[in-house]
Design a protein that fits this description.
Blueprint: E1 18-21, H1 26-29, E2 31-32, E3 36-40, E4 44-46, E5 50-52, E6 57-60, E7 65-68, E8 74-77, E9 80-85, E10 88-91, E11 97-100, E12 103-108, E13 111-114, E14 118-122, E15 128-130, E16 133-134, E17 137-139, H2 144-147, E18 151-153, E19 156-157, E20 160-166, E21 172-173, E22 180-184, E23 187-192, E24 195-196, E25 203-206, E26 209-214, E27 217-218, E28 228-231, E29 237-239, E30 242-243, E31 254-257, E32 263-265, E33 268-270, E34 276-279, E35 284-287, E36 290-292, E37 297-302, E38 307-310, E39 313-315, E40 319-323, E41 333-337, E42 340-344, E43 349-350, E44 360-361, E45 364-365, E46 369-370, E47 376-377, E48 395-398, E49 407-408, E50 414-419, E51 423-427, E52 431-433, E53 439-443, E54 448-451, E55 457-459, E56 465-467, E57 473-474, E58 476-479, E59 486-492, E60 495-497, E61 500-501, E62 503-507, E63 512-514, E64 517-518, E65 527-533, E66 536-538, E67 541-550, E68 553-555, E69 558-566, E70 571-573, E71 576-577, E72 587-591, E73 596-598, E74 601-602, E75 605-609, E76 614-616, E77 619-620, E78 623-627, ...
Helix pairs in contact: 5-7
Protein name: Periplasmic copper-binding protein NosD beta helix domain-containing protein
Organism: Methanococcus maripaludis
Domain Periplasmic copper-binding protein NosD beta helix: 160-354, 629-782
Length: 996
Amino acid sequence: MIVLSCIGFVSALPASIDYNINNSNYDTARNITSPGMYYLTENISSTNGIIISSDNVTLDGQGYFLNITGNCGINSTEHNNITVKNVKITATSYSGIYFKNVNSATVENNTINTTYLCSLWGSGYNFTVVNNSLASGFGGNYGLEQLTTYKVVGNTLNGKPIYFYKNEENIGEIPSDASQIIISNCTNGQIKNLTLDENAVVIYIGDSSEITVENCIIKPNIYHEWDIYLINSENCNISGNTFSTSENTEFAVIKSYYSNNIIISENTLNGMQKGFSLYALTNSRIFGNTFENIYGNTIEGSVSTGVYAYLNNFINGSTLTVGNIIFNSPADVIYHYNVTGYFGTAGNYWSDYNESGATTTNGIYSIPYAATESINDSYPLVETFGTAGEPDDELIHLTEENFKRVSPYTGGGSAYVVITEPGYYVLDCDYVNTSTSNYSIVIESDNVTFDGNDHWLNTSGNYVVYSNARAMLENITIKNLMTSSSIYLTASNSDVSSNNAQNLEVNGNYNTISSNVMENTTYINYYVRVGGAYDTISNNTAYKILYHGYDSKIYSNIAEYDLFVYGDNNNISSNVIDPESTQGYNYIEIYGDNNAISSNGVDYIIYLKGNYNTISSNTVDDHISATGDYNTISSNTVQDNIWTSGQYTLISSNTVINASYYAIDPNGYYDEGIDAYATVFNNTVLASKLGIWLDNFCEGYSNITQNTVYADDYPIIIGDNITGCNIYLNNFIYTGNSSNISGIMPNNTGNNSLVSPFEIEYKYNGNTYSNILGNYWSDYSGTDADGNGIGDTSYFYGCDYEGTYYEEYYDIDYLENDTAPLIDMWNGNEIGNYVAPTISSSGSSGTHYSSDLSYGIGSGAIKRAVSASNVVYGNEIDQGFALNLRENVQNGNNYQLSGNTIIVGGPEANGFANKYDSEFGISITNEYPGENKGVIQVQDIEVKDGNFVRTYQVIYIAGSDRFGTQAALEYFKTLEDLPEGPLMVEWTENGPVVVE
């Protein structure tokens, strides 16, 4: 209780009475019974103090001393408009100034030296307390109604400021020079790291919320008072403080009335009469405190509902006179026993526990501790909390005990383990229960790692690990869990890796989801589903991988059926849509803009809908379908066809292996009558029925140049409604049986150009020319009299094509005139010397992973590893070895790690190998591992990518010499799975053998 005194000035006082108080008249004058102005005219010493028994009184001490030894220096009860100023008061028995129910009081510029509880004590309204110097506390009986009418400014306690706050939000951190702190009707204040040792109730908190008292030393030299007084407040935290008293007081160090949701934790109390006095406290937690040598009541009072006391140490004194407190944790908590961390329901440590028949499990006694008939601790601790051996590994172990009971979580259900505190949690057991719908693990705290430790955890509920979807958590790790159930996480800046589950769903930003395996032998649709932004999804295996978000990287995953992405600015690379799946048609589906889809392998289709996307360097065992504007489709290997719909599409440098019908069809928007304006450039069609198909679906105003097309019927179809196209420098090779692919010669001449719109410089037979150029037609039979590579007569390309489907659209009678046909095939910048590429036909049989994969690899795991990796070499010898894995390989000397990679060859010749050689368990040199010996090693390597760290799998196949590298590579192809550690191999006359 703190004192506030008030003096008030009233503008209309009765006529002033000048009255001087001195030693000669003190015995009668000290009782002031009439309004007026009173003055001390000399220093006065007496047993008795001055009594003000009238309203409207001002007492001006004029700097004189008032030394009182028997009672208060100045006191008044139930009067108004009292002012006391400029008095130097010494009171040895009671308060210097004592006001009771005095309204409109002013106490100003006084020096009050007392050894009692309060220098200034009062109650009433409208106190003004300004520039007083006190030797002990400022206190009184008051609450919200009184304190919010006070003005308290410039006062000190033994030279240190008294801080007073009222009606203020976000008061912030209290200054470190505080002597006494009074807070009324305020929010969000922090009292931290202070030493409060004055003769006062050093902290008063009334009608306030979110006030923290943390890590303070609180030891006021006080008698008959409390250290901290808390009344009618909520959501406050008193934690980590050390309490002691230099006087033998019967008062508790914390007194609380009518407060809610209060945390009192990890405080230390030693050698005092009482601990806490708690009345009408609700929904609060008292935990982690140490009560030692408390020779009165450790906790007294009568709380209301929802108050729990747990993980406290009651040492040498545990008298409790309190009702309704529950002496165990409301849910599982972290505690330590015998240098091991555990997570479970916990009680308190009682130094006088003496149940001789009790056994212990995870640091909990089997027999409850009964303090009284009404106070019972069902989970007493074997060791003191917080001092009994912190675990060296800082792990929190989940054992079978955690799965014997359930706890509620805030989402409304129940779970065996509800994680509400940060920490590193490790599963130490298998738990399988298919008869319950309770979740196994629910995470409701930031900064949590849950390590399944390769144990099995199963439940018939929807999720085995779950986070409350109502709250976005931060910094969560879930790893190494084995389950046939599902995992669900709503969090950001988190990592879900190396789990084996049925389904996995993660929602949030800046997450890493890697190396998870989703599988189920009875349920087909098992998936990884992710939503958010700036995520990394890599090296996962599932039936489906589904992503909804933007600015993320999705690479090196294996999906048995579908990789689905909805969003913008994503990088989708090096994924394999498993052709060994029994589901038939497999997809990569992309919906969005500015996505990069590269280096993937898919058994059936890449399907795209969006704008400004790039589809490049993919291997597709059927076709690519893309709708939208400004898309780029380049450098892909496609088994059947490429179909687009939109404007300004670039289709370049692709290879179509064996189109079952048409190979390339660049449509516009037919329903709207909008032409394509596409560019079809430098593509190779190795086999088709119809090559480039301009079939009256608004393919107009497109540029089609430098393509090489082999076709059984027509290398190019030009519909009679197509106009504005430039078609030149293409090689059109007819492979069918007809003698003339020109067909009929219709009367209407086309509206497209079959020659270049400008002169082109080129070479032919060693000479350089510059001319308008047309196309190469394999059935052109004209002559070249001037020897410049251009036919002397025009090539008339007529078409009488009638389609078997939608005949009304595809019945085409059309004539185009190539006035500068090429005598030989176009090859870069010259006519002639063209060599068609040869690419292994992948078909759609489902017997391999990517079209360029070596047939010498048998294991599905090794196929997946090679399909999902870039293969790099250093010199020609190592290049030859690398080509034994796949046809698409690259020089590693300037290679930057940006995806899963296989290194072929050692650091002497391979710059990339030299850069990362030290990352592996065995470093390769010309001397080690030795003649004809090589090593196979697998390592996850982290690289910085902007503000993120990416992890890629790197396989290192190298030897001390060429035979060592050959031995390692040939043996690698025979493996069933990737080795867990370095595998040394030697080349012998019988081939590669493992070196034991």
